[in-house]
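ingest -> validate -> predict -> emit
validate: passed (alphabet ok, no gaps, 359 aa)
predict: started
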Amino acid sequence: MKLLKKEWLFFIFLALFIVLYIYQKPDAKELIASVDFPTIRALTLLLLITTAIKISNFFEYVSIKLLSRFKTERALGFSFVLLSFFLSMFLTNDVTLFILVPLTIAFSKKLKNDITKLVIFEAIAVNAGSALTPFGNPQNLFLFRQMHISQLEFVCEMAKIVIPQALLLTAFTFFSFKTKKLEITSFSKIKTDKLLFLSSLVLFLAFIIALELSLVKYVLIVAAAFYLVFYRRVLLEFDYFLIFTFVLMFMDFSLISKLDFIRNIMKNFDFSFLNTFNLTAALSQIISNVPASIFISNFTDKYLAIAYGANIAGNGFVIASLANIIALRFLNDFRAYILFHKYSVIFFILAYLLVIYII
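emit:
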């Protein structure tokens, strides 16, 4: 039951797969072909490296050093919202939250100030910031491979929707956090593993180069061997269920796209750039942005429009991005869900209007 509660997303996609498999009885080769294994390998390597960086405690150490320098809620808000925004570009939106949200909650034991709003803004920030890079979130990693462009070209294209969101996020943070004084007590020292952090940083740079040159599988072998020999804890704490979930996503949405009534609906849809963007944004609010990206990519090659829609729609309803669920699950307070939608839905609407104007 504990596993079911923790890995509910995996079991939802597993149940869907079983139903679709019984109904369609697909060929095994067809199922295997539906999985984008280069994307799975890239995601596996990225998750290995970011798991190691998380274990190194380097960013926890930096965050505590930063906290001691801030005197007001607004200053704290800006520091952690911007830190979330920029870290998510490299560590992915989910991993950034796994690092910063527990740390933020730990601050609540040292602060008399309420940190609920800060956690919500961290979720909004990682959804906005992670849109910039090919490895910022899973949908980008998948769509980047389909585009057949360089990482620099991808960043330049995505900057068109990230810069407006950055400005909007800055304004949101300024007006939402007051100048109320922080009441901070002392912090215990954080033990860091500098060697693990530095070696993982080298592997991350190798990952970026390998992603550009389509050599990810070789760096994955090196990274897995390195952690197996020197840091087995990384392999023990690695999120295997997340990788299995993405494999199931590819299979599920390949099977769904082959259903007759779905094909008939999508066959009559006008996949212009704007329509594809709108469809992705709308569908993401219902089934989450990663599944929406995979599903719509079965019917059109307008991958940039899908990327714009999926990333803009990370904010909005809580289901729109797994990052939102991760952040709110840490808070474990129903009131946080209400407060989340108060800010996130408005942010999504304004970001959508800005992007529509730009594109």
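The two ends are 46 Å apart (CA to CA).
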